[in-house]
Design goal:
396 residues; alpha+beta; Jelly Rolls; eleven-stranded antiparallel β-sheet; nine-stranded antiparallel β-sheet; 26% helix; 30% strand
């Protein structure tokens, strides 16, 4: 068991206070969007006197035999704190096959890894789960096209947008959604007025009850952060979900999404591959996005963890790269054995404080502190009173 120190990522969409408060650090007036805990080469965490990458390179056995067999001598997952004050980019993540092909293609073309126009930063997929620490708002998956057409009609802009959204009801299947999505992201200056007209119409419905009111408020929220961005119309094609604390959203390869606001813990495959389509100042690759995205209507399930044993709550996903879980450590229930035996594990206390004990050594885990547990540390128990989020390989 070793203390693990993560790395802060300062993106414009981040909040100012939420992550510093969890970490017990003073806010400095600049956005803190993410806090990474893992061994991604671009921003590895610190353990002992070096990085977690160095530690794994020196002692690969900390990963566990089955994880090494499946993923090589690399930690297969990454954990993050994420806190958004406004929308992240409209984005999707590639499958393993797409990531391998895209990374190879850009590498052969000689595009530097840190080049702004680089889309594939590594050869890994990036399925992920977001677990809410506060009410968390996200856009995810495409809404049924007829419902979307009805919402635009409810704003009173169906006629103005007919040339753009017409295929939603005139054609069937994912090709229609793909056509509309590509069209709105490609609006030239002569058609940008369609975005402004939609936002202006939304102003008149911002206090409405029901789906039209929520639709209008989403348009206004996006316009406040990205005025007149064509990505607003693209984002309005997606479902809006609200996660309550403890609920999760799994984002598989190909699912279009854009997190809007809130703070949560993310666990994902160890990748930084993000293919963006709008609502960002970063590189947008619409042509690549269209090859990756699943354009079928899709209402994602809000995940509720299952209690596998007292105090241990597991979030079910189909991923082999990671398992995500949290522990509700309480004096009344006694010590809890940390899940994920046989795999390297990362623990993060998001509230309270607990003591980790493996029978040979002890480590105090206060709020905002993290720990790295090697695969051979089999029986580690947590006691005290704390909420602890954890991740391990999905293969042990």
């Amino acid at each position: 068991m070793q203390p693990l120190s993560g790395t802060v990522q300062r993106y414009d969409w981040g909040t100012h206070n939420a992550i510093p408060e969890i970490l017990g650090r003073p806010a400095d007036g600049t956005p803190v969007a993410e806090y990474w805990l893992g061994a991604h080469s671009s921003s590895p965490s610190l353990v002992g006197s070096g990085t977690l990458v160095d530690h794994i390179d020196a002692v690969p056995s900390v990963l566990g035999a089955r994880s090494r067999e499946a993923f090589g001598e690399q930690l297969p997952y990454l954990m993050k704190l994420l806190s958004a004050r406004h929308a992240l980019s409209i984005q999707a993540h590639p499958s393993r096959e797409q990531a391998i092909a895209g990374f190879s293609r850009e590498s052969l073309a000689g595009t530097p890894l840190d080049a702004p126009e680089r889309t594939y930063k590594d050869s890994w997929p990036k399925p992920e789960i977001l677990i809410a620490l506060s009410p968390f708002h996200s856009l995810a998956g495409f809404r049924d096209p007829h419902e979307t057409a009805a919402l635009f009609a409810g704003l009173g802009v169906a006629e103005q947008l007919e040339s753009v959204i017409g295929p939603l009801t005139e054609r069937k299947g994912p090709a229609a959604m793909a056509e509309v999505f590509l069209d709105v992201l490609s609006l030239d200056d002569s058609r940008r007025h369609l975005v402004n007209e939609t936002v202006a119409a939304a102003m008149h419905h911002r206090d409405d009850q029901g789906a039209v009111g929520e639709f209008a408020r989403t348009a206004l929220e996006l316009d406040a952060a990205f005025p007149a961005d064509p990505g607003i119309l693209a984002a309005l094609l997606m479902n809006r979900l609200v996660l309550e604390p403890g609920e999760g959203l799994f984002v598989p390869a190909g699912m279009m999404h854009a997190h809007l606001q809130g703070t949560g813990v993310e666990v994902m495959a160890n990748s930084d591959n993000v293919i963006r389509g709008g609502l960002t100042n970063k590189h947008i690759d619409v042509s690549e996005l269209v090859t990756v995205v699943d354009f079928n209507p899709w209402l994602p399930e809000v995940l509720h963890p299952s209690e596998t044993r007292p105090g241990v709550l597991k979030y079910e996903t189909p991923c082999s790269e990671f398992e995500a879980w949290r522990m509700h450590v309480d004096h009344d229930t006694g010590p809890i054995r940390v899940p994920g035996r046989g795999s390297a594990r990362i623990l993060l206390a998001t509230d309270g404080s607990c003591l980790l004990d493996d029978g040979r050594s002890r480590l105090q885990l206060a709020r905002g502190c993290a720990a790295f547990l090697s695969a051979d540390e089999q029986d580690v128990f947590a006691s005290g009173r704390a909420e602890v989020h954890g991740a391990s390989s999905g293969i042990r």
